[in-house]
UniProtKB/TrEMBL annotation, chain A:
The chain crosses the membrane at residues 44-74, 86-105, 111-128, 159-181, 210-232, 295-313. It is found in: Cell membrane. CDD domains: TM_PBP1_transp_AraH_like (cd06579). Keywords: Cell membrane, Membrane, Transmembrane, Transmembrane helix. Its main location: membrane. Pfam families: BPD_transp_2. It is a multi-pass membrane protein. This is Sugar ABC transporter permease. InterPro entries: ABC_transp_permease. The keyword Repressor does not apply.
Automatic annotation (TrEMBL), chain B:
Residues 6-244, 258-499 form the ABC transporter domain. It comes from the Bacteria. Belongs to the ABC transporter superfamily. GO terms for molecular function: ATP binding. Involved in beta-(1-->2)glucan export. Transmembrane domains (TMD) form a pore in the inner membrane and the ATP-binding domain (NBD) is responsible for energy generation. InterPro entries: AAA+_ATPase, ABC_carbohydrate_import_ATPase, ABC_transporter-like_ATP-bd, ABC_transporter-like_CS, P-loop_NTPase. PROSITE patterns: ABC_TRANSPORTER_1, ABC_TRANSPORTER_2. Signal peptide: none annotated. It comes from Bradyrhizobium iriomotense. Keywords: ATP-binding, Cell membrane, Membrane, Nucleotide-binding, Repeat, Sugar transport, Translocase, Transport. This is Sugar ABC transporter ATP-binding protein.
């Protein structure tokens, strides 16, 4: 856990303490369990987003993909009687395929990731709405998938705390992602390509493949999150389901230390970023703040967090500069601002 | 010589623990061309920053037209007629020439909107263009101009501010020979107009060519000033390093072996009608000389698989190889130390250890994961071997000096099994001491059986280090030289396409 993760954790604890002080219901088991469930679902697609941001890209279609794949998943198991395991595999494959397409367009066709995934955002949303004729997709009367429901949306009692399975899923995903990003060769390549694609290529890294892989991983994880979210909500209005989720994901990644220039970010940070966002959401509910102010509160806190971080970085740099006047500060000061 | 209008008296600059400038005196007379030379870190740039008002001196005073002051602000320096032409140019390539020259000072029409008066703007720029003999129009988009032309734009900017002194920081480091010649003529023209020039350079022949005086700094102190009559490369080098530079050339331990790398009729994108053939033998340093733009870097990029080869073949140990990517080249043991280490050689804000292991991470695995202990251990070994000056291999590469950065690039490849090492400008922007260490390493490598292809635009380096020289001219080899034929004259003749 680096300094940035630590300060994020402190921020979460401070916000949590303030909320508890004003409204002790924050600490009720039911409330914590529900918040944890949100963290589980949002954390997975935030990690997905982080992979793409780390290689210097961006993925804007997360919310639309969650809507489209969610609709398809429910349609497959409810209306087409497809075995849920098969449907599960098909949806994950669909997510991977979307990632492959995005990555290929970015690397081989040299289209900017913002443009590629913005088009994706529009296309998948439109496809989801057309597919259901803008009707809500859900489980009909009597439709029941006990195993699947237990696995995805169930909770297990752990020491008296009903632990949502989405959290278990997030822990597994985060652990694998952590090892992959921070300990494996592939992780090194992801960061190297994000920091300086040209130098990575000159070091023999097939940077195109690395970039495409990042989008594929992102697509696959998003598909997984789409299933969890579909099973949790149990009904999907394709026009609004998952909308703005890409922004939650980007916000969590940025809070967690990812630089939008690429090459920075940690998995622990992204998970903590997700926790903070959900705690804030919870804060709005518990403190009786009008829910219309939801986004405004989140935006303000993120801005304050980023400003505070920037202030700390600058102060630290000022003290190091005083101590070491000869240090070469010319080397990419902006990147360094995000490095800590 | 007229009276000096600008005097630096007893200027010192100390940072905690470091003396950057130690009681330096400098006088500048109108129309005087002063070359400021010295190793990297000698204090040249700090001195110029004091002059430009960017750095406040810790002691001493500055006298302008007889008026004494402790320091300048940037604005006061400009007022005093001091202009800076930076090494990395501060221009906007989305504007045209005139827009750049008068940025922030555009003539405007009257009225509340303050629209730019383009006619007046161009009218003001035109005489400046004529004065410098520039071959472009005031409305030429900057993006379409060459680096040398950008420099002229910077100089025009200085002149438009009525500069009496123009400071240039390594103005020729990225110029071709022709462009350098033209810059020398511009300097002569400014001198004739009474404008003074101070230029920082590493190229001693330029000092010989145009300086009235050379001022030598070493470790923050002024160790000597040479008048025009006293100028000679040997004298300058002696002052710069405080000792005579020993003859660079170290002969190989054994006669070169058979050819390791054969380039047969190679065609690159830049010169689709020309082909290059050359071979590098085991244990030799083949210098590749030529003017900037002669296609040497493009050839290196094609051999290393960065750019596709448009024709011809590459043979390694006699067997044809297909190199479609840097990765393929690396797998064959062909490594490149690129021209621009910051953009293509290194991840600047990543640690030394991680930079070194990057091309060969699969050798550092334990149970599929990167073993950082072994990574650190290797980095430490390379630090000793290459004398990389850093207390800690976890330091970010970007905080090292140029010479040490270059050693890290070299350490990447030396941790593997090089068969052919291609160096593109191995010592550009590196101080004399680190240069010598890199040359020593080159020789040790060839003595260990590596074949080295060294692209260099530095005449001293090409002649002093190579065992053999190939010269390129417009995308083709114009000749080979053996050591007995080595001379600046011969290399230049071939470089401009003549025969010897």
């Amino acid at each position: 856990m680096n300094k940035k993760d630590l300060s994020l954790l402190v921020l979460i604890l401070v916000v949590g303490a303030v909320v508890t002080f004003i409204n002790p219901r924050f600490l009720l088991v039911g409330n914590l369990s529900n918040t944890a469930n949100q963290v589980g679902m949002f954390g997975i697609f935030s990690i997905a987003e982080a992979f793409v941001i780390i290689i210097g890209g961006i993925e804007l279609s997360v919310g639309s993909v969650i809507a489209l794949l969610g609709v398809l998943f429910i349609d497959l198991i409810v209306n087409h009687d497809v075995n849920w395991m098969l449907a599960f595999a098909a949806i994950i494959a669909g997510g991977l395929a979307i990632g492959l397409v995005h990555g290929t367009l970015v690397t081989r066709m040299h289209i900017q990731p913002f443009v590629v995934t913005l088009c994706g955002l529009l296309i998948y949303r439109g496809a989801a709405r057309y597919y259901t004729e803008d009707a809500t997709a859900g489980f009909g009367f009597g439709a029941s998938f006990p195993t699947l429901e237990w696995l995805t949306a169930g909770r297990t009692n752990v020491l008296g705390f009903p632990l949502p399975h989405s959290v278990v899923a997030l822990i597994i995903v985060a652990t694998v992602a952590w090892v992959l990003l921070h300990r494996s060769v592939f992780g090194r390549y992801l960061y190297a390509v994000g920091k300086n694609e040209e130098a990575a290529r000159y070091s023999g890294i097939r940077s195109d493949r690395v970039v495409i892989s990042a989008y594929i991983i992102c697509g696959g994880l998003t598909a997984f999150a789409a299933i969890l979210i579909a099973m949790y909500t149990r009904s999907i209005s394709p026009a609004v389901h998952g909308s703005f989720y890409e922004l939650y994901a980007i916000a969590a990644a940025v809070l967690g230390g990812c630089s939008l220039r690429g090459g920075e970010g940690s998995i622990i940070g992204v998970v903590l970023g997700t926790v903070l966002l959900q705690v804030l959401q919870n804060l709005v509910n518990l403190l009786g703040i009008p829910s219309s102010l939801n986004f405004a509160v989140m935006g303000t806190v993120i801005l304050i967090g980023v400003l505070g971080d920037q202030y700390l970085v600058q102060r630290r740099r000022a003290t190091t500069a005083k101590a070491k006047p000869q240090a070469n500060v010319a080397a990419a000061p902006l990147e360094r601002a995000n490095a800590e | 010589m007229p009276e000096p209008f600008l005097e630096l008296v007893d200027i010192s600059k100390t940072y905690p623990g470091v003396v950057a400038l130690d009681h330096v005196d400098l006088k500048v007379a109108p129309g005087e061309v002063i070359a400021l030379i010295g190793e990297n870190g000698a204090g040249k740039s700090t001195l110029m920053r004091v002059l430009g008002g960017v750095v406040e001196p810790s002691g001493g005073l500055i006298r302008v037209d007889g008026v004494e002051r402790g320091s300048f602000t940037v604005g006061e320096a400009i007022q005093a007629g001091i202009a800076f032409v930076h090494q990395e140019l501060n221009l906007f390539d989305n504007l045209d020439v005139a827009g750049n020259v008068f940025i922030g000072r555009e003539p405007v029409h009257g009225g509340p909107l303050r629209l730019i008066d383009r006619k007046a703007l161009y009218a003001k720029v035109r005489p400046l263009l004529e004065r410098l003999g520039a071959d472009f129009e005031p409305d030429a988009p900057l993006a379409e101009l060459s680096l040398a032309q950008h420099q002229l734009v910077e100089i025009m900017k200085a002149l438009s501010l009525d500069a009496r002194l123009v400071i240039m920081d390594e103005p020729t480091s990225s110029l071709t020979l022709t462009e350098t010649d033209r810059l020398m003529r511009v300097i002569a023209g400014l001198k004739a107009d009474g404008v003074s020039i101070i230029f920082i350079t590493h190229r001693l022949n330029e000092v010989m060519q145009c300086a009235d005086r050379a001022v030598v700094l070493r470790d923050g102190r002024m160790v000597g000033a040479l008048t025009r009559a006293e100028l000679s490369p040997a004298a300058m080098i002696r002052l710069m390093i405080g000792r005579d530079l020993r003859s660079l050339y170290v002969p190989p331990a054994a006669a070169p072996g058979e050819a390791v790398l054969d380039i047969v009729e190679a065609v690159t994108d830049t010169y689709p009608e020309r082909a290059v053939s050359l071979s590098v033998r085991r244990g030799e340093i083949l210098g590749l000389a030529g003017l900037v733009g002669s296609g040497r870097t493009e050839l290196a990029r094609a051999i290393f698989g960065v750019d596709p080869l448009r024709g011809g073949a590459i043979r390694l140990d006699g067997a044809p190889v297909r190199i479609a990517s840097p990765r393929a080249a690396i797998e064959h043991g062909i490594y490149l130390v690129p021209e621009d280490r910051k953009s293509s050689g290194l991840l600047l804000d990543v640690s030394i250890a991680e930079n070194i292991s990057l091309p060969d991470l699969s050798s550092y695995l334990r149970l599929w994961l990167v073993n950082t202990a072994r990574e650190t251990e290797n980095a430490r070994r390379q630090r000793e071997r290459l004398k990389i000056r850093t207390p800690d291999v976890e330091t970010a590469v970007g905080s090292l000096s140029g010479g040490n950065q270059q050693k890290v690039v070299l350490a990447k490849w030396l941790s593997m099994r090089p068969k052919v090492l291609i160096f593109d400008e191995p010592t550009r922007g590196i101080d004399v001491g680190a240069k010598q260490e890199i040359y020593d390493m080159l020789r040790r490598l060839t003595d260990a059986g590596v074949a080295v292809l060294m692209i260099s635009s530095d005449m001293e380096e090409v002649i002093g280090v190579s065992d053999r020289i190939a010269v390129m001219h417009e995308g083709a080899i114009s000749g080979f030289l053996d050591r007995s034929q080595f001379s600046e004259h011969n290399v230049l003749q071939l470089a401009v396409g003549h025969t010897i």
